[in-house]
Amino acid sequence: MKKILFITSQYRTGERIYPILPHLCEEFEVDLLKVYQMKSSHKWAGDRDLRKDFDRKYGHLFTRVIKEHEYDGDYDLIISDDNRDSFKTKLGQYYRGRKGTLVSFEHGNNDRNYFSKGYQKVFDKCFVFGSKDAFHPSTLAGGIPANDKLKEYQNLEKKHILIIVNFLGNRTSPFKVNFNQHLFEKLDLKNIQNTLNLPFLFKLKSRADDGSYLRNLDYLHNTVKDVEYDVIVDVEDDNKLIAESGYVIGAPSTLSFKPIQLGIPTVLIERSGQHGSFHDFSGLLNHNDDILSFLQTQPNYTDWVEKSIEGGTTFTSTQNVVNKIKELL
After folding, report:
1. Which pLDDT score, from 0 to 100, does residue 135 have?
2. For residues 160 and 184, what is the distance between their CA atoms, to the nearest angstrom?
3. Which of 69, 202, 256, 266 supports an S-S bond with 248, CB 3.0-4.6 Å?
4. Residue 227 class from Cβ within 10 Å (0-12 exposed, 13-18 middle, 19+ buried)?
5. How many CA atoms lie within 13 A of 66 on its CB side?
């Protein structure tokens, strides 16, 4: 039986591809190696440790769970949930010691040239989201396996206007536009809420360098005024969270693919995150644009999804990735 090593480094990165694991573990001998933020020694920064969800859902599937010092590279295929050449994940070390192919998945929606930097240094092949991004010889269009479950949630009641936050205004940021009082005033949240008649739900990232999510909650409570809203940090089922959204406003991010796949009116704020695959998305707007009018239109994202997410319109990314992995063995 063929042997595979699955390396997972961050829940937020890995959760996009975890649905491939039951399929692979059913046919192959699959070992698990946890590195970086997936190690138990790493302090979880959010309000729900999603690593426990990973262990509960997938831990029993693996043949072995190995430690870093037990790695010997003796696998027909190594799969990594990240494609960055970083001291944090030590992928270069595992790449140099490999005996078979190492295939990775792109870190997330980004503008950075991880492909030329990482090719033949930390991976042989790398999965990207859609065919339009498969511009490097190493790339394979895979889609987003975790998003396939959206198909089960297409008719849920709409409960909120979701705001997907990248960087708040209480910390340093590499981006020109951040989720601060200035942006909230520009968006005119009160007018949006009065018109669309739904409460806001802010989705925050749990970042290791934030220290504690509590300071972010305090910041929002001191900044967002005169509207009805709630805040969520870590959530077990983000597909359901998205499907219950009547509208979405946010930064360009991997999470933002989900509402677009479901055809939910979505506005992404320019320069609040890496544009990446969203560079040609019609809802990528300047924060001075008429956000409300765009949200009130009924979008048709089908053509964009077909180019940007392999299997995105048919919710078949999981099987697509599994099939391509089998071709590498």
Report:
1. 84
2. 17
3. 266
4. middle
5. 17
Structure tokens at 99: 């005996």
Question: 3-144+316-328 adopts what CATH topology?
Answer: Rossmann fold (3.40.50)
Buried b (16+ CB within 10 A) or exposed e, 170-188: beebebebbbeeebbeebe
| pTM beyond 0.85 | yes
Name the segment(s) of the chain with CATH classification 3.40.50.2000.
150-308
Give residue 8's Cα distance to chain centre: 14
With the C-alpha atoms ordered 58, 62, 67, 73, is the resulting torsion angle positive or negative?
negative
Strands in the chain per DSSP E: 3-8, 29-34, 64-66, 77-80, 101-105, 125-128, 139-141, 160-164, 200-203, 229-232, 245-250, 266-269, 284-285
Mean per-residue pLDDT over the chain, rounded: 95
- The answer to whether 177 and 183 have CB atoms below 8 angstroms apart is yes
- Strands (DSSP E) found in 195-275: 200-203, 229-232, 245-250, 266-269
Class of domain 150-308: alpha beta
